Structure formats: structure tokens, C-alpha cells
Amino acid sequence: MGNSYDGKEDEMYRNFCEVVTSILDSCGKDEDRLVVKATAQWPDTSAGDSSMDKDTNRQRPDLMIYPTTEAAQKAYTLSAKDINNSRGKDRAHDARTSWAWSLLPIELKSDEHRERPFQFSVKGFHRSTKSSDPAVGLGQISEYAWNVMRWQHRQFCFMLVVCGRFARIIRWDRAGGLVSSSFNFVDDPTILQNFLYRFGHMSREERGYDPTVTLARQEYIDEMYSCQKELSTYQQQRFAKAFPKETERGQWPIYEVCMRKEDVVTPSTINCDEVKKSASRLGDDSASGGPSEGQEDERAKYLRFLIGKATFISSSPTGRATKGFVAFDMHLRRLVFLKDVWRVTNVPTELEVYERLWKHEVSNILTPICGGDVGGSRSPGSPSPQTTRTQEFVKKQSARVHFRLIVYQVCKPLTEYSDSRELVCILLDAILCHHDAWVDAQILHRDVSVGNILIDVEAMVGGNEMAIGILSDWDMCKYKEDLDKGAAQKQRSGTWQFMSALLLKDPHKRHEVSDDIESFVHLTNWLILRFHPHNLSGKSHRQLLLDYVTLTYDKHISKDGADVGGDQKLIHMRNGEVGFYPKAQVLEDLTRSLAEMCKDHYATLTSYTQRLEGREDSKTPTLIVGKPQGPPRRLRPTLRSTDGLIEPEEPRQQPQAPRQQPQGSPTLANHEAIFKIFTRTLEYGSSGDKGTDQFEMLWAVSTSAGQKRSLETPEPLTSQQAKKAKGADTREESSGVRGGTPHTGSLPVVDEGAEVE
């Protein structure tokens, strides 16, 4: 046996498969039996060619332990065509990679492999080398953990990494990975045998599955499909994407998600028609805690939601790990949206934030109908919610709790706006929401980005259905009273491409309302660059466009342990430059006006910006002191007509700027300037000037230039050096409405679990 592990990886496959098989065969009955398969040559092809799934198509661990259910076997068994086209003769253990059914990935490396992630045969953990090879190996197994928890509904997962005669066991959750000591399984196979034997006898929950999510019962699936024709035209379109045809069901199974009765939002908290409809699932006795005993079985299914293919999944195995699903509400018999995250414990939940926003009548927000921590209960003596455990062994690592939120609206992503006029309307709606949240509810969003602005195409305004802009994803926000208390974590939050120049240049800067307003400017320019004609458009300018986008939105360096960037943004902001020239007059005027606004703002911060550029020593200014400012509520239009905005009433007098602010009046300290610019832009008619996605063609340019990440698919900066799969380094983008940190940036983004001062 020992000699089998002294050679190359492919020579190890057969022997290790036989060892694992002998142990698993002793573990259970036929229906519970597990199998190990060699998957190194057979990628997961179920994902197709969508940008969300390109990376999955190429990642494949050496071995995989699978269940032997009919659906699982259908997903991983090789076809006769596959076998006939294969080069090798011995295919007894071969199977296709199927992340949807993976129980335990196993990675095999020879003892001399340069990319082994850890030390194995000697004392110590990290390899002492200046090479980046260990980081590559660590990134590879991180990708495997990400895929398991991406495709499946997991609390945690196990992994086995073998290097020659030695192995380590890893337990991954959303706070990180716990790695066992290295053990020699050839000289002493006890540890390996015990682990695999116990793994074979574990329940699904013990293997890391979320018990609140199970494969949907066929009667529920049938009931859902019977309602499909009753949905609106838009919801039918979303239904087709969310719930694949039966031929794809093996890779994207339909699950039912169970929510607790206490998770249902009631009219006593948020009083609106949508919440009233949802709360009716509790019956007339909702005030006393739920249905009577005789009604329990029938009403139970109304606390269940069916989900299929995700619209968005985070690109990291750790952190908030946001997932988004278009879900079918068994009670409302319509589509809703389900957001699944792992939150930090010392900040308000997103449901609590929405309750505060609704209490202060903030406009253009989503309507939560259900939400709470998963697996726990507010009742005394009840089990604790699902919580990570890695932080128990890693200093300064925060615990994360599984949280689920369901909202009534199913929206379109901002990138699907029809033309420049609709873009301006949607962004104006989001700006108004941001203003209301800050002035009325005293909540600062802190992650204004392309992915967090949505289009509600079925909103009712004045009795008419129309599209409105929604500012979503408030799980990175902070209340004004908490802004001076410091960060829940020591990293910045937000999406790198859209963060203000000052936040990128100064990792210690407190996040302020001016930073969020500047983010609206950056995302406006970014969308124009992506979808509208400009002087960098066309095949002949692809490299120029790539260079500009990379320099402006992506470039960063590591300084004193922090990622620092924003040099080009700071130049644009300080000088009032746009950097490119839109061909549509409306967009040229818009970008110039926004640039002048930012120039006026930065003119009051000269000494601070000079210090950031190393030209002068000065203290970081505080732009927001005292009461929040912004365009008053009466200045905000409540309806939008076909001719533009209804004439706003005269604004009330604004409070005086606090003396602690820098000399001058920082323009972005309130929303008035940006509000006026976007309102004035609505005087232009519809132009129909939106074109094709110009960032798609940049992927070929960046690949040929040796860059590993598409402009469409950013990844956390903290892991950029460690990411390498067997074949590709791309990431998915959001394919629909979603939550959490967006993946619509151009290259890297800040670690999505970060919190910021």
C-alpha cells in the first residue's frame, strides 16, 4: 500500500479509492450507502455556459464521496459516450464532478508537489517558502469548499487533503477552516479509518447540512407548477429561470425552506397590504401566537417556501456568504425573494433595519414578510441558532449566525434598465431613499453599489403600475448613534469599485454620508462606461477601455496590511474630471455636472487630500457632525409623470453647518446637490441609447494580457492571491435580484464580510 503514495497523483487514485470503498461499504444499508469516485478528469457540466457558472465547469477535486440515491447517481454517473471518448481503460471508479451532491471532496497531491497547501511530513503547519505555490494550493481547496457550500444548503462541510503518505482533515464553515494535525495514514491507518467510518454513519445534519432545508415533496412541487399560469407575465419569466425543467432537476433540485411562525412579519410591526396578506397565513389568532392545535398540520406548509436555482451566490466560502433565491410562497401562491446570509452578531439584523426604515416611512425600500435567525428561537430554553465554530479556535475571528430574510418584491437588477432616462429615474429613486433613511431614520447605508439598487417593475404608484428604483441590502448599514462607536470588524465594508476616493486612500477614515453620495457618482459613470457609447467604445479601443476601468475602479496596493487605492478617483474628484466622453448629450451633461459637484466638495478638503497624497500633514476631517442634513422631505417628489417630476414645493430652511467641518461647505455633506442634478437631467426625453455590454469583450483582452479576473467578476482582495482552480479563475456574477455585496464590479472587491468605521 505504501508504495502507491510515493509517486504521482494519478497513481494514487485507484488505491485510495479502494481503501475508502472498503470502509464505506461497512457503514450502512444499501439506501444509505456512500461511494467514492475519481472525478479529476470530469468537470461538472450541469452549470452550462452562464457567466455565473463558468468557474464551476472547470473545478474538479481528485476524488469525491457521493450518496447513492437515484438523483445523485444520475448527476455523477458517466455516460456511455463519456466512457468511449476517454483515454484510459480503467474507469471503474471514474465519475463526473457534481457539486450539488458532493459529500466530501478529497484532494490528492504527491509529496513533492509544489502547490501542496500545508506542511505534511514535518512539524509545523505553513510551508517555509517565499514561493506563492502554497497559497495557490490553499486557494484551490478553498474553491472546493466554496462550491460545496455554494450549491448546497450547508452549515459546514468536511474535506480531506492527502499529500503522499500524510493527510489532514478540514472542517469549513463561514468563519474559516479548521485543519487537523498531519497524520501518516500508511504507517497508522487508524485516524483515517475512524474518520471515514464515522462519516459514513453520520446523519445529514452531522455532515453539515442545514436541517431547515430539505428536498421538496412532490405534492408541493406539483402545487407550485399548477400556480405558474396565475402569475403575472414578469413573475412567469422569473419562475422559468428559478425553477429549471425536470431534465435539470438533478443539478438544481427544488428544496423547501421551513420558517418559524415567529419569523412572520405582522401588521403590528409593518402595516401595509403586502404584510397583511402574508400574515394571514397565521390565521385570525395570529395575535395569540398562531393557529390552533387542530389547524397545525394544514397550516404548517404555509410557513414553507420553495427554491430552485439561485440568482446570486457569494464568491467566498467565508464571510456573509450571501445567497439569493426567487422563491415560491406556498401561502401567497406567488414569487417572493429569499436572502440567506451569515451575519455578525453585534449589529442589528437586516429585518430590524427594515422595521426602523418602515417606522420612519422611508420611500423606495423592500417589504419584508418573514425573517429571523435560522434554527433558533426567541423563546427561553430553545435551541441556539445555527452559528459558526471556527471562531472558537481562532483569535479575533467573529462568530457568524445564519440569518434568512424574505421580501415581497421580486425585482430586476439595475443593469437591466432600458435607457438613460430610466437609469436616471431609478437612480433618483435610490438617492431619495438614501436621503430619507439618513435624514428621517438616521441610517447610513454604507454600500451604495450597482448590485444594491434594484428595479421594482410591479410597483403601484398612485393606482398605476410603474417601475421604481429600490435601494436594497441594508446589512452593512449603521445607525447614526453607532457611527462613532467603531467598527464591528477591522476591515472596510462596501464594494471596491464604487467606494469613495477617500475611503480607498485612507483605510482609517470613518464612513460618512458624503462617501455614499460619491458612490452614486462612481456607479453612474461605471454603468455609462459599460452600456453606453463613449470615446472608449469599439473594438479598436478595447485595451484603452480595459486600462481605464482597471486604473480607475480596480487598482490597489497593499500598505501597512491594508488594501489602498483610489489614486485615479481622487484625481478625477479633485479636478472635476470625468475621464471619458459619453456620446449622448444627456449623459455628457450628467457626468460633467456630477464631476463639478465633486470638485466643489473636494475643494473644501485640500489639506486632507494633500496629506493622503503625501504632500502635507493634516488630520482626517469629520464631515458629518450633529444632525443629518439633506433635501427635506417636502422637496422630494412623490410621483413621476410622463413629463418628468411633479414640481417640488419650496424647501424648508436647512440647519447651519457645524463649526467642526473643514473650512467651506462640503457639497456632499447632504443630498441637495446630487438631487438637483438628477432632477434636472429628467428634462431630457428618452434616448434609447443603451447598447450592448462593453465589458464582456474586455474579458478576452484581460485574459490575453495575463490577468486572471474578468471585469465582470470581482473577488475579495484578501483572497486574490490564493485563488486557483484546475483550469480557470473566473467568478460568477449576479444573474438576478440579489442581496449582499455585489458581484458586478470589474475586478477585485473588498472581503464581503467586512465592517467599517
TrEMBL record:
Residues 726-735 have a biased composition (Basic and acidic residues). Pfam families: Pkinase_fungal. One of its GO terms (molecular function) is protein kinase activity. Residues 653-663 have a biased composition (Low complexity). InterPro entries: Kinase-like_dom_sf, Pkinase_fungal, Tyr_kinase_AS. Coiled coil: none annotated. Residues 127-219, 395-527 form the Fungal-type protein kinase domain. Residues 613-667, 706-757 are annotated as: Disordered. This is Fungal-type protein kinase domain-containing protein. It comes from Fibroporia radiculosa.
